[in-house]
Amino acid sequence: MSSAAIDRSPTPRRFDSSLPPIVAGDLEVRLARDEADLDAAQALRYRVFYEEMAAKPTPEMEAQRRDLDDFDALCDHLLVVDRRRTGAASIVGTYRLIRRSAAAAYGRFYSSAEYDISRLENWPGEVLEVGRSCVDASARNGATMNMLWRGIATYISHFDIEMLFGCASLPGNDPKRLALPLSYLYQKHLAPPELRARALPERYVDMNLLPAGNYDAKLAERMVPPLIKGYLRLGGFVGDGAVIDTQFNTIDVCVVVKTDLVTEKYFRHYERAQRDAE
To answer: Which stretches of 42-125 are assigned E, i.e. beta strand?
Structure first.
């Protein structure tokens, strides 16, 4: 569906309360329940993306100091809540979750602006697009990340998700400076053809920049951002081609994970990460 055919009139916001919250110590992970939760998530996203990472806000975003778009009204927002804090400051982590029904209501998935995701859209089972993941600087530790992943795992089980995907970012927009991790991701973690999204022709950036075996693979792996490493540990793959995102000053790759590959051994990794952080 073309963007011109989509009705952009105000849409009532939806909040799904069917997912049970998870509590571990002082942290809780749950879905946004009301406008205040959504506003806190958007404020957190603005602080991380625009104030800390120097993305370029629209005039509306800058005036409101909120990261927002039309997708927010239709999708679910996973939140990590620090129960020692009060009000909006208690929201220390967030993830935006877009199921097929939300994408249909909007007219497309978010990733389709960068990638041909037709193979993923046509998957017969339920699919989930993930994005806008961020954690407050004061809460960037194994415990918070573990809660985010536990929330994703619970969501996958609750809604019978068979596959998740989304755009994940590497900082900076110069492919040559990111040749090591991009080449590593393409050569070691390229998705099989049936799951392989491909960057749109007008946005396609070659990831396979360095000859295999002619660079330090260990260094390349260390340069992969933690979030992308998390997807890879869950059995994930990347699509063909990167995309430069000038607004966020990043280079994006499309990540896809079949949830039947999400085995207990991967989640034990995050359990260990939480214990190490405590």
So the answer is: 76-82, 91-99, 115-116
Query: What contacts 213, CB < 8 A, 6 or more positions away?
Result: none
If 0-12 CB within 10 Å is exposed, 13-18 middle and 19+ buried, where does residue 35 land?
exposed
Q: Judge residue 249's burial from the number of C-beta atoms within 10 Å of its C-beta, 0-12 exposed, 13-18 middle, 19 or more buried.
A: middle
For 24, the token pair is: 């571990």
Pairwise CA distance, residues 192 & 190, whole Å = 7
CB 164 within 8 A of CB 247: no
Label residue 138 left, alpha or beta by phi (over 0 means left) and psi (-120 to 50 means alpha). Answer: alpha
| In CATH, 3-273 is 3.40.630.30 | yes
pTM exceeding 0.85: yes
- Which tens digit of pLDDT belongs to each residue from 159-190? 999 999 999 999 999 999 999 999 999 999 99
Helix axes 142-158, 264-277, angle to 10 degrees: 150
